[in-house]
Prior knowledge:
The protein is of the alpha+beta class. The protein has a single domain, classed as Aminopeptidase, CATH 3.40.630.30. It has helices spanning about 10-30, 40-45, 85-100, 115-125, and strands spanning about 1-5, 50-55, 55-65, 70-80, 105-110, 130-135, 135-140. The protein has a 7-stranded mixed β-sheet with strand order 1-2-3-4-5-7-6, with helices on both faces. The mean pLDDT is about 95.
Amino acid sequence: MIMLRPAKPEDVVAIESCLSAAYATARAELSDLPDVTGGIASDVADNLVFAAEQGTALVGVIVLVERGDVLLIANLGVDPSHGGQGIGGRLLDLAEDEARKLDCRELQLRTHAGLTATRSMYLHLGWTEIEQSGNVVSMRKPL
Length: 143
């Protein structure tokens, strides 16, 4: 069973490992993909970070940053060995719940233009692409 919980400082190494695994294929294909593991310790200390666990394994993570009435999804990753179980969807639902608790009007995120499957998934889930600058695509989802 997958459990969602707030991340703790002792999760930092497992979160970095999960994100590295989640982005490994994309990193091999996209040379300009930004680092997805830098600053995790600061994120856990300063932002809303949630972990998805299966047993004792950390298998997914979402990093949320409050910016006024917008909640930014700064990072989202699921270990590919646990893909297809709805973990990403549950983490996105959790982000919406957190945004509502904080009285945010929308969720936002940025993704790489080359991550076409990721972009398609977000569009399917009701997100809108609002801007593209180089390889960075900004998206939003009103609440």
